[in-house]
Amino acid sequence: MRAHARWRSRRPLRTRLALVTSAAAALVTLGVCAAGFTIIRYELVHQLDLTLTQHATLVQQQYRGQGPQVVYGECGYLAAPACTQIVPASPAADPPRPYLLPVTPATRQVAAGQRGAYFDGITVSGHPARMLTTPFGTGQAVQVALRSDAVQKGITQAGELMAVVAGAGILLAGGLGYAVARTGLAPVARLTATAERIAATRDAGVRIDLPAGRGEDEVTRLARTFNTMLGALEESVTAQRRLVADASHELRTPLTALRTNAELLAKSDRLTDSQRSRATAGLQRQLREVTGLVNDLIELARDEEPQALVESVRLGGLLEHSVDTARGHWPEIEFLSVMTGDPTVRGVPARLSRLFANLLDNAAKFSPPGGPVEITLHDGPELTVRDHGPGIAPEDLPYVFDRFYRASAARALPGSGLGLAMARQIARAHHAELTAEAAPGGGALFRLRFT
Ligand SMILES: Nc1ncnc2c1ncn2[C@@H]1O[C@H](COP(=O)(O)OP(=O)(O)OP(=O)(O)O)[C@@H](O)[C@H]1O
Ligand SMILES: [Mg+2]
């Protein structure tokens, strides 16, 4: 197991793949060659055995009823007929002429009928030969032998040929394995190179080139996912940069006004009482604005609701409380709320209050004196806030949720354009959808729908 892990960690994937592919191809080549050699050898020997069997049958027919004897003795010549002898079970009955083929106890056993016919590889006069010993009549055996030089040579040649083929096959397998690993892993190598480049340059704008017109293989899918991930990363980096740029831009104006007032107050001995109190009031107001702006920015920079604060929230109670607070802030506006049911959602109460406050604050801010601002809550859960102010122009509608966006009509009123951006962010974190629309009969209508 540990050796396996070491092999995996030490060698690059390409080498491993090349080795495994080559080994598999080499194994197949070796197997095929070995099987081919076995078949050729069997066929060659089998042919010789058939000839011997035919010859033995012929001898059995021709010499029926005759006693032990040496039939053909010219075993040494290549072209000679099969060397043949008839052997008795008992050595006492042996013919006077000496045998040319080896007579063993096994031969006597065949003659005595104690053993079946068998083939044997022997050497006759220094030449390789194959011999068949088979029962003949009663108490005798026929032995026939043929020189097997040609067969032996054939087998050796076949063996050599197969060895050469196997060697070439293994070399080819090695080459193929390397080529397969190289081409197969080329897209992965490209992917790795891109990932390494991004890691080195921290440039999320780089993308992997997707091969045009190629099918959806695993690597292409991985590359596509990787590109999607890079897109998301780039978007998030850009959004962060924009937030910082927007924030510093937005902070510059109130800070300049603050500095002007502060400088003015530094020379307070030269100011009249009314000028001084105007400057003090302005300073305080601008400080409040900057503080609010900074707080909003901090809230916006947060992404997710902290899990520890998530609880079951009764929307009715929370909304009631927010409306009461808004009534305190905007005594001249009439807030009318209609609540059917008391839906409950999972969320962070302080953040949801913030969302409601932003909607109520906008409605009151843009309402004509007296209002009214109408609020409804019903099961779904769905909440609407509607006012009777100027409403949102259709061309502004797509942008009101953008950070720092304020319609030109709203520039005269206090605000920084962060309220709705924050409201939508809170809504999303609570799996809710916040939308704006034109209310029938004029005014703006904001709808918060939980899913
Ligand atoms: N009830 C509404 N009626 C008409 N216009 C609205 C209404 N609510 C929002 N808007 C438009 O959408 C813009 C963005 O609203 P948002 O609440 O984000 O910013 P703001 O109220 O101007 O500033 P902040 O909320 O940061 O003090 C507003 O400037 C205004 O143009
Ligand atoms: Mg607002």
List the topology elements.
Elements lengths: L1 H9 L2 H50 L6 E4 L10 E6 L16 H7 L6 E7 L2 E10 L3 E8 L1 H53 L16 H49 L6 H29 L9 E4 H15 L5 E5 L4 E4 L1 H18 L6 E6 L3 E5 L32 H11 L2 E7 L5 E7 L1
Parallel strand pairs: 7-9
Antiparallel strand pairs: 1-2, 2-5, 3-4, 4-5, 6-8, 9-10, 10-12, 11-12
Bound molecules: adenosine-5'-triphosphate (ATP) and magnesium ion.
The site of magnesium ion has 5 residues, from α8.
Structure description:
- The chain is of the alpha+beta class and 451 residues long.
- Among the domains are: 67-146, no CATH class; 218-300, Orthogonal Bundle (Helix Hairpins), CATH 1.10.287; 307-450, Heat Shock Protein 90 (2-Layer Sandwich).
- It is 53% helix and 16% strand.
- It has nine helices and twelve strands.
- The protein has helices at 2-10, 13-62, 105-111, 149-201, 218-266, 273-301, 315-329, 349-366, 419-429; strands at 69-72, 83-88, 118-124, 127-136, 140-147, 311-314, 335-339, 344-347, 373-378, 382-386, 432-438, 444-450.
- The strands form three sheets. The protein has a five-stranded antiparallel sheet with strand order 1-2-5-4-3. A five-stranded mixed sheet has the order 7-9-10-12-11, with helices on one face.
- The longest helix is centred in the middle third of the chain and has 53 residues, at 149-201.
- It is rod-shaped and about 160 Å long.
- It starts with a helix and ends with a strand.
- The protein binds adenosine-5'-triphosphate and magnesium ion.
- Residues 358, 361-362, 415, 419 line the site of magnesium ion.
- Adenosine-5'-triphosphate is lined by residues 358, 362-363, 366, 387, 389-392, 400, 405-407, 410, 415-421, 444.
